[in-house]
Amino acid sequence: MSREAFYQLTAEDANVLMSMLERQGDRPGPFAAVLREKFNRSSVFSREDIPPDVVTIDTQFIYTINGVRVGPHVLVHKPAGGLPKLALSVCSMRGLALLGLAIGEKTEIPGNDAEFEVLTVESVLFQPEAETRPKEKVGGAAELIDQAPQVVDFRPRHRKPVISDDDDPGPSAA
Known about the structure:
Elements: E1 7-10, H1 11-24, H2 30-40, E2 42-45, E3 60-65, E4 68-76, E5 87-89, H3 93-98, E6 106-110, E7 116-126, H4 128-131
Helix pairs in contact: 1-2
């Protein structure tokens, strides 16, 4: 696996990897090595802060294998066997390797016949974390959820002085 990769995970994705790592134990093998490296070379973000171009669990994306376009696929947290064609399990070598990569980033994994596969994220079509955030306007300001005008008038108001005919200063004068 390439040492150049830097992974970005949500806290939920990191928890999934942690449970997978606990189940792996000290078993050797390429999957365990990729899993350990993924966990050790990742930064963890909240759902609100993960960049929208990163592959997370339940993201729909397109990627390439040795330059050949594949997908779109949805990365799922289910066992690899018996999934529909559009699903890619995070429990598979390719799914695990792609988790946490951003558009344009690539990684290498052991392939069949002792050759390496180069996986590259081409595009992210849907990321659930990005869909929960407020949409941004073209100018970069967040769109108001409440469409009513949000106006606060800071101009000084003209007040009439209150003059009392009573000459008793009250208890405060004592």
